[in-house]
């Protein structure tokens, strides 16, 4: 079984591939994805953006199931920000736009700046992911996964991507950037959403009337 992912993000593809391997499923990017103009992600919720992307990209892979996710970090002390704007947090805040650092580095620095006056015991946060599956422009399934954690005062770990070096999993006393890919699959918001999606018995065959 093959699922086509509407992302070229290496970290997301790695997470999906790790989760899928346990079920004998292959995850590949949508064919020709890099040549397809990206749609505007202008919905106000993770589900809205996931559905939008799944519908759009499934039209470029006729007859196949295309999965799309929207995910991000919600920090309680910031009233749920950065939320759906997680990937563009520093950009939205005009934070160090001329910096040579990576987008992830700038976003992490921007988050730490926003939380500068917030004590560590009030830095409760969660990762959220919504996955949508679509075929030929029609959404067939959606699923959600979350994981609770806390934002550290400084990054830890060399793995992961996004806000992973700042996101502590209290029960492990490790960040998302410190755990193995297998552990991340079991605990992460993306792994949980993926398993919830597969539990709905999606398949890669055209619907039978």
Number of distinct beta strands: 7
**What gyration radius follows from the Cα positions, in whole Å?**
17 Å
Low-confidence spans:
204-209
Query: What's the CATH topology name?
Result: Maf protein
Derived from helix and strand composition plus strand pairing, the structural class reads alpha/beta
Count of DSSP H/I helices: 6
Mean pLDDT level: 90
Instruction: Please report which band the strand proportion falls in: under 5%, 5-15%, 15-25%, 25-35%, 35-45% or over 45%.
Output: 15-25%
Shape: globular
> Major sheet, described briefly?
7 strands, mixed
The helix-strand sequence is EHEHEHHEEEEHH
At the first level of CATH, the class is Alpha Beta
Q: What is the total domain count?
A: 1
Condensed summary:
It contains six helices and seven strands.
